[in-house]
Design a protein that fits this description.
There is one protein chain. The chain has 180 residues and is mainly α. It is 79% helix and 0% strand. The protein starts with 9 loop residues before the first helix and ends with a helix. Helix 4 packs parallel to helix 7. The longest helix has 32 residues.
Length: 180
């Protein structure tokens, strides 16, 4: 009887990595759509004008666009796993800041942090290319791409249900829990 630990086969480890990355990508995508069902109520909820409340969606897209470009390079310089952890942490912190917000400025800060988490997606895809065997790579990347759409599709009705059933802050608490 051998006491030497057995190594996990590469395909099993690669599959686990793909599943975790797909869940992370789906969560990032889901958090981007959380505010859409309450967007019309944001001026009243945050005590601001409708044009200012529009920035709650816009700032996420702007910071996401910057993050997606920067995260790839940072992943090459610092390591993809570190960048993935950092972007996941940004998503958790951004969700918590948004959950605790009752006015425009902190909500914008939280949503900007959530947008920065979009850098998770290109780095996750790049990591998949490195850790999956060649016969699994295309399927893994396709799965990640599909989960992005699924996250957005789930986010809309789920956040609408949560906002109608609970206090509107609950959509961000849900985002924080999923992100963690």
């Amino acid at each position: 009887m051998s006491t030497t630990p057995t190594a996990v086969p590469v395909p099993t480890r690669a599959l686990l990595t793909v599943v975790v990355l797909c869940f992370g990508g789906m969560t990032v995508s889901l958090t981007q759509t959380l505010v859409i069902p309450i967007q019309g109520r944001l001026p009243d909820l945050l005590g601001t004008t409708p044009s200012n409340a529009g920035w709650v969606v816009t700032i996420t897209l702007l910071t996401g666009a910057v993050s997606m470009v920067m995260s790839g390079r940072l992943g090459d310089l610092l390591g993809k796993q570190r960048v993935l952890v950092a972007t996941a942490c940004l998503l958790v912190v951004g969700s918590l800041v948004s959950a605790l917000s009752d006015s425009l400025a902190p909500m914008l800060a939280g949503r900007a942090l959530q947008g920065m988490a979009l850098g998770f997606i290109p780095v996750g895809i790049a990591l998949m290319r490195e850790v999956t065997p060649p016969e699994m790579t295309n399927t893994a990347i396709a799965a990640m791409s599909a989960t992005l759409g699924v996250g957005g599709a789930i986010g809309l009705p789920l956040s609408a249900f949560v906002a109608q059933t609970f206090d509107w802050h609950a959509i961000f608490w849900m985002g924080a829990a999923l992100s963690a």
